[in-house]
Amino acid sequence: MPFYETIHIRPQTQLHLWKIEEPLDSLIAGVPLQDHSLIRLHKLKSEVHQKGFLAVRHLLQHLGFSDADLLYDASGKPHLSHGQHISISHSHGFAAVAISNENLGLDVEAMRPKVLKIAPRFMDVDTHLSGLSLAEQLQKATIIWSIKEAVFKIKNEKGISYPSHIREQPFDPAEGSTVARLDFKHQTELFPVQFIQREDYIFVCVFES
Ligand SMILES: CC(C)(COP(=O)(O)OP(=O)(O)OC[C@H]1O[C@@H](n2cnc3c(N)ncnc32)[C@H](O)[C@@H]1OP(=O)(O)O)[C@@H](O)C(=O)NCCC(=O)NCCS
């Protein structure tokens, strides 16, 4: 299945989803790539990553952009040549791009039980998971992991620790929003967070303001 959905996360922010179901060959055939993108594609070791990389190009094509409109800075952060902000994420079955007038971070994660095993290493388990069923814990821990990845994509600074520097206000997943707080280098910043679930995947957008 190709293009899946566009979600209007905010008035100036659209989240576009591609469900990755095509074989690698048909993803490669369907999208023209610049030389440096071809080199990157061939350096990606896993087929899952290659498919994600290509599905993002298909999404851009669907939106009227091309691979040539996508530029990367030295840290690997993507930018659109015409000036709007973009954030990219892919995870097994889905690729997603968020395009906005605001600086933002996007993360997509599949809800997998492994997240509960590692949760104490990246989040405050007592605050967020106590009293929840196993299914609710899985959903919430995945949202929180994604929030931290998305905050990292906005800030893009070495030294940010997920458990020590990024915290989330207590939230009910049914509300689809919360606020993340970054305490780093003697500064505190607040980031509005919007999230949705599609199938077994969590999609999180974090905004700079
Ligand atoms: C950069 C990072 C957030 C990417 O997350 P991921 O889950 O591995 O992969 P995703 O699919 O969600 O995102 C990949 C996309 O992020 C974008 N990206 C890569 N580096 C980026 C950066 N520095 N800033 C913003 N976006 C970045 C790219 O567009 C990339 O996809 P593409 O290269 O195919 O275009 C992650 O690799 C990372 O480095 N996290 C920090 C880890 C960390 O500090 N952990 C501390 C634990 S205590």
From TrEMBL:
The keyword Transferase applies. Residues 104-168 form the 4'-phosphopantetheinyl transferase domain. Keywords: Transferase. It comes from the Bacteria. One of its GO terms (molecular function) is holo-[acyl-carrier-protein] synthase activity. The keyword Phosphoprotein does not apply. Residues 54-100 form the 4'-phosphopantetheinyl transferase N-terminal domain. This is Uncharacterized protein. It comes from Flavobacterium fontis.
